[in-house]
Amino acid sequence: xxxxxxxxxxxxxxxxxxxxxxxxxxxxxxxxxxxxxxxxxxxxxxxxxxxxxxxxxxxxxxxxxxxxxxxxxxxxxxxxxxxxxxxxxxxxxxxxxxxxxxxxxxxxxxxxxxxxxxxxxxxxxxxxxxxxxxxxxxxxxxxxxxxxxxxxxxxxxxxx
Length: 160
Fold this sequence. Notes:
This protein is mostly helical. The chain has helices at 2-57, 61-72, 79-104, 110-125, 127-134, 143-159. It has one domain. 84% of the residues lie in helices and 0% in strands. Helix 1 (2-57) packs antiparallel against helix 3 and helix 3 (79-104) runs antiparallel to helix 4 (110-125). The termini are far apart.
């Protein structure tokens, strides 16, 4: 009788182990699905923010002129224009920083990052970003983003 109970206990342990393995596989599948849903939501929010920023910057001729001038040649602006252009540009940089950080945390697919990487790099290489780097406001941005931007600028300077 004791032998039969031991066999039943062994069978119960095997069944329990299989049940645990099956439940872990199921949980893994759920996590993968949740990760994809989170990535899709993140991408949707980024796309919505892209559109909002573009619409707001083009909302007035003056804003469009200031952001374009600051990005390309901040020294060409008067002090008042420089200040306003700086804040518009900083908002745009904050968006680019978000793209960079989302990529660093693997929240963007490689395809999504590839389509936006040139936007990020173009921003980092602009004279406006150089002005931001010289500003005390650079401390308001993530250190790894500032380091990435500085490294990108150094790479370009070495090629020239």
